[in-house]
């Protein structure tokens, strides 16, 4: 699954014009590629590598649409780019919301530091 998603990202990077129409698909449509990639990236039950690949592919599609729109007289309007950007931002926000708070990270680091110090005293 990860390899297939990475192939999408690499293909979109290599030939943005070919992927622009898929990137411009309305993310709200459940069957659209951006929507599918967003769901995979936000799936807490998926493997981290798969989630990361899905996010990378989604961002590559965003870049493909942007580069395509800038390079030619695009048939895609700013609304499509705006929707994809908003969808991508929502996916990133969802992923960031899963991260532990600064306080929890500090507490974790203190525990790890304490364990390292205890190991040093024993040796």
Structure description:
This protein has 123 residues and is mostly helical. Helix content is 78%, strand content 0%. The protein is built from 6 helices and no strands. It has helices at 2-14, 16-23, 33-42, 48-71, 78-97, 102-122. Helix 2 (16-23) crosses helix 4 (48-71), helix 3 packs parallel to helix 5 and helix 4 packs antiparallel against helix 5 (78-97). The protein is elongated and about 60 Å long.
Uncertain stretches: none
How many helices in DSSP terms? 6
Radius of gyration over C-alpha positions, nearest whole angstrom: 19 Å
Q: What's the main sheet like?
A: none
Count of β-strands: 0
- What is the residue-mean pLDDT, rounded to a whole number? 83
The percent range for helix content is over 70%
- SSE order, as H and E? HHHHHH
Name the structural class.
mainly alpha
Q: CA-to-CA gap between the ends?
A: 45 Å
Strand-helix topology:
Blueprint: H1 2-14, H2 16-23, H3 33-42, H4 48-71, H5 78-97, H6 102-122
Helix pairs in contact: 1-2, 1-4, 2-4, 3-4, 3-5, 4-5
Notable characteristics:
123 residues; mainly alpha; elongated
Task: Provide a short characterization of the protein structure.
By secondary structure, the chain is mainly α. Helix content is 78%, strand content 0%.
